[in-house]
Specification:
2 helices, about 120 residues, 6-stranded antiparallel beta sheet, single chain, 6 strands, globular, about 30% strand, alpha+beta, about 15% helix, binds zinc ion
């Protein structure tokens, strides 16, 4: 898997999620500022894993994070979900899951409805 910079959609999603207020979010903002990503699933969906180079201070946030997203299609129907998982307090994976046939790409921020 190739480690790379986040795409604009990935960055928009994480920036929006981490602009919210929940336990441990400050440490996650610091982690995210230094994170690279890579595809974390072989099925063709947009799930990504986080890659860090060096020391990372853990967060006290729960996993999955308390803020989750529903992915809406152009008609406003829920077609999937997106959650962020930690491992030992460190950003680990963004899971993009589909409720319909076939995998979903990483969603645009406009197609996400937040739930918490
Ligand atoms: Zn997948």
């Amino acid at each position: 898997m190739i480690t790379r910079q986040p795409t604009s959609d990935e960055r928009a999603f994480l920036d929006a999620l981490l602009s919210r207020s929940f336990d441990g979010v400050e440490a996650l903002r610091i982690q995210w500022a230094d994170a690279l990503v890579r595809s974390s699933c072989e099925c063709g969906c947009g799930s990504i894993g986080f890659v860090f180079d060096g020391e990372v201070s853990p967060s006290a946030a729960s996993s999955p994070l308390p803020v989750e997203g529903e992915i809406l299609d152009d008609d406003g129907e829920v077609v999937g979900g997106i959650i962020v998982l930690l491992r030992d307090g460190v950003l680990d994976d963004v899971d993009v899951h589909s409720f319909t046939d076939g995998p979903l790409p990483f969603p645009t921020l406009a197609s996400i409805r937040w739930s918490e």
